[in-house]
From TrEMBL:
Swiss-Prot/TrEMBL keywords: Signal
Domain VWFA: 30-208
Stated name of the protein: VWA domain-containing protein
Listed SUPFAM superfamilies: vWA-like
Signal sequence interval, chain numbering: 1-19
Length: 467
C-alpha cells in the first residue's frame, strides 16, 4: 500500500541543553557486551543456530573497532540450568584483544536462564568500581526469565550518576516481547534494535558501533507517525543542498535524536514498516549547539481515483504517477474501471497511456493533481476515437498486404501491420490519415496504393483497396 507523506509539522522547540561540541576522545571509552547464552540460543534461524549467527556477527563486527578499543564481555546462562545468578565476566573492560573476544564467544555453550536484570546489575557494579563511562550492548533472544526488571535497574543506575549508554539488540524476539527492553534502552540513553535475522543483527551491530557513549548527545529529534500511530523510520541527514551524509538515526516508534553540529541540513525520513511508502525530504533544517530542535512528521496519505474513458466509456489504460521531481512513485492499470492509488499527500502528475488505441493522442499527462491526507481525489481523462478498417482486395477476395497509417499533419506513423485475409481494423484518434498499402508477392498481385481519409469521433470508416 502506497502512501504519500504529509509533513504534519516541523516544530522547533527550544530546550536549554549543554553545547555538544566535543570530539570523540582519542582513547575511546570501553564497550561491554552482555551476551545471551541461554538455552534458547540453540534455536534455528536460516539453517544455523542463533548461537552460531550471533557469534559470527559479533566477531566480525568488532573487527571494525579502533585498535585501542577496550572490549569487555559478560555472559549469562552458560554454566548452569535454572540458575538466575549464572552471570560471568569473561573478559574485563580493560581487554583490548579482539581475538580474545571472538574466541570467548565461540566457546560459549548456551544452557540456562535469561537473567537480564541481574546481568545489568553486575555490569553496573563494574562501572561503579572502575568509575569509567562505557557503552553497554546487550544481545538477547529472549525476555527476562528471573523475575527482574532491567528497566528499573537502568533507571536506578542513571539516578545514581553512573555514566553509560545502553543499547539492546533483540534477536528474533516476537511481537509484544520487547516492551521492557525498549524501556531499558530508552532509560539508558540508547536504542533498542529489533534484529529478525543475521542481516538485521549485523546492521544493528554496525549502528551500535557508531552510537557510543563518547558520541555527543543528540540535539535534533525526529518523530514519525502514520495513521495516528508512531512508526519505525530511518533518518538520514545531509549537509543542506548536497548528498554529503552528516548523520542518521532510527526512530523505533519513538522520538529519536541525532547529533548534528549547528548548521543547516536536509533530512530524509524513510518509513521501515511500509516499504512502498516514499520517503519524505525535509529541507533547510537548522540545528543548534545550545538548544534541541525537533521534526515531527506524519506519513498519513490519501488516494487518487483514476478513471480512463474513450468516448465516455470505460477504457483500459496504464497509469504512471510522478512526483514533483518527475520520479515515478506509483502506477498500474485501469482495465476499464476506476483504479485507486494510495499515496503520500502532495502534488503529482498522472500519466495515462491508452491501450488498443492508435493515433497521436493516446497518451495524456494530467498535471498538478493534489493528494490530501485522508481524502480521495478523482482524476478523470477521456480519450476520443473512431474506427478505421483497411481491407486490401484482389480478385474479389481479401488478400495479404502490408498496411501503414500516417497522421497527415505530423507525418507520424500511428499504426498498421499485415492484413492477412481479414484486413486491418483499429480504434484511432479523430484526424486525417494517409493509408499506404502494398500487396505481398505471394498473393499474385503487386503495387502500392494509397488513400487519404478523415476519421471523426464515434464514426466508423472502412477503406477498401482493389487490385
Amino acid at each position: 500500500m502506497k502512501q504519500l507523506v504529509t509533513i504534519f509539522c516541523i516544530l522547533l522547540f527550544t530546550f536549554q541543553s549543554e553545547a555538544q561540541t566535543k570530539q570523540a576522545p582519542e582513547v575511546p571509552s570501553p564497550i561491554i557486551f552482555i551476551y545471551d547464552a541461554s538455552g534458547s540460543m540453540w534455536g534455528q534461524m536460516q539453517g544455523k543456530t542463533k548461537m552460531e549467527i550471533a557469534s559470527t556477527v559479533l566477531s566480525n563486527s568488532i573487527n571494525d573497532f579502533a585498535e585501542n578499543q577496550k572490549i569487555g564481555l559478560v555472559a549469562y546462562g552458560h554454566r548452569k540450568k535454572g540458575d538466575c545468578r549464572d552471570v560471568e565476566t569473561l573478559l574485563p573492560i580493560s581487554n583490548t584483544s579482539k581475538s580474545e573476544v571472538a574466541l570467548a564467544v565461540k566457546n560459549i555453550k548456551p544452557l540456562g536462564m535469561t537473567p537480564l536484570a541481574y546481568s545489568a546489575e553486575m555490569v553496573m557494579e563494574q562501572l561503579r568500581k572502575s568509575k569509567e563511562k562505557a557503552t553497554i550492548v546487550l544481545i538477547t533472544d529472549g525476555i527476562e526469565s528471573c523475575d527482574g526488571d532491567i528497566c528499573d535497574v537502568v533507571k536506578a543506575a542513571k539516578k545514581e550518576g553512573i555514566d553509560f549508554k545502553l543499547h539492546i539488540v533483540g534477536f528474533g524476539l516476537k511481537a509484544g516481547e520487547t516492551k521492557q527492553l525498549e524501556c531499558a534502552a530508552k532509560a539508558g540513553d540508547g536504542n533498542y534494535y529489533d534484529a529478525a535475522d543475521a542481516s538485521g543483527l549485523s546492521e544493528a551491530m554496525t549502528e551500535v558501533a557508531s552510537e557510543t557513549v563518547d558520541k555527543p548527545k543528540g540535539n535534533h529529534g525526529v518523530y514519525a507517525t502514520m495513521n495516528g500511530k508512531a512508526i519505525d523510520a530511518l533518518v538520514t541527514a545531509y549537509k543542506a543542498g548536497t548528498k554529503n551524509k552528516a548523520g542518521g538515526t532510527r526512530t523505533y516508534r519513538d522520538t529519536s535524536f541525532v547529533y548534528l553540529p549547528q548548521e543547516t541540513y536536509d533530512l530524509e525520513i524513510r518509513p521501515l514498516e511500509n516499504s512502498r511508502v516514499e520517503p519524505i525530504i525535509l529541507k533547510g533544517i537548522r540545528t543548534s549547539n545550545d538548544n534541541k530542535t525537533y521534526s515531527i512528521i506524519s506519513f498519513d496519505g490519501g488516494k487518487f481515483a483514476v478513471t480512463s474513458t474513450n468516448n465516455g466509456e470505460g477504457w483500459d489504460s496504464t497509469v504512471k504517477i510522478l512526483d514533483a521531481d518527475g520520479k515515478t512513485v506509483g502506477g498500474g492499470r485501469t482495465y476499464g474501471r476506476t483504479k485507486e492509488f494510495e499515496l503520500n499527500a502532495g502534488t503529482y502528475s498522472v500519466v495515462l497511456q491508452a491501450i488498443k488505441l492508435n493515433g497521436i493522442h493516446t497518451k495524456a499527462k494530467v498535471e498538478n493533481q493534489v493528494v490530501t491526507a485522508g481524502q480521495t481525489t478523482a482524476v478523470d481523462y477521456n480519450f476520443e476515437s473512431g474506427t478505421l478498417e483497411v481491407v486490401p482486395m484482389g480478385g474479389g477476395k481479401n488478400i495479404d498486404a502490408t498496411v501503414n497509417i500516417i497522421e497527415v499533419n505530423s507525418r507520424t506513423s500511428v499504426g498498421g501491420g499485415r492484413s492477412y485475409d481479414r484486413g486491418v481494423k483499429m480504434n484511432i484518434n479523430p484526424g486525417t490519415y494517409e493509408i499506404k498499402v502494398r500487396a505481398l508477392k505471394k498473393t499474385g498481385f503487386s503495387g502500392d496504393k494509397s488513400a487519404t481519409v478523415t476519421v471523426k469521433k464515434g464514426e466508423a470508416i472502412k477503406q477498401t483497396f482493389n487490385y
